Amino acid sequence: QLVESGGGSVQAGGSLRLSCSASGYFASINCIGWFRQAPGEEREGVARISPGGGSTYYAEAVKGRFTISRDKAKKTVELQMNSLEPEDTAMYYCATVVCGTWNGNYWGQGTQVTVS
Fold first, then answer.
1. DSSP structural state of residue 86
2. What distances in angstroms separate CA 72 from CA 6, 20, 24, 116, one per listed residue?
């Protein structure tokens, strides 16, 4: 089971940090991805990270603004979002993914991010 937290409302240019929590072993052996879905839009991949944390990948829309990382002590996957734009407004989900792809397997319930 994956659980997202950290969403909220922020003004443009601000920052938020999302967290994806999963059972330690489960999370450590899987690639994890962050996705988002805005109203009326298809879900899109935002960032993903390898099991060890050494490999990351970002969608062009967020490259340079978002950073995905693993907090091994907390057993979470974090998404630091800086320089937020209204276009980043969406429900954000984390999921286990097939490494190297955006194919998600197990999903969290999402956390809302609103940028005004």
1. G
2. 18, 12, 9, 33
d(CA 23, CA 42): 28
Any bridge partners for residue 5, and if so which?
Answer: 19
Residue 23 token pair: 């059972």
Angle of CA points 83, 87, 92, to nearest 5°: 85
Structural contact between residues 79 and 34, judged by C-beta atoms closer than 8 angstroms: yes
pLDDT mean across residues, the chain: 94
* pLDDT confidence bin for 3, thresholds 50/70/90: very high
Indicate the helix (H) or strand (E) that contains 26. Answer: helix 24-28
Around 76, how many Cα atoms within 13 Å sit in the side-chain half-sphere?
14
pLDDT in tens, 92-110: 999 999 999 999 999 999 9
Beta strands in 15-115 (DSSP E): 16-21, 31-37, 44-49, 56-58, 66-71, 76-81, 90-97, 104-107, 111-115
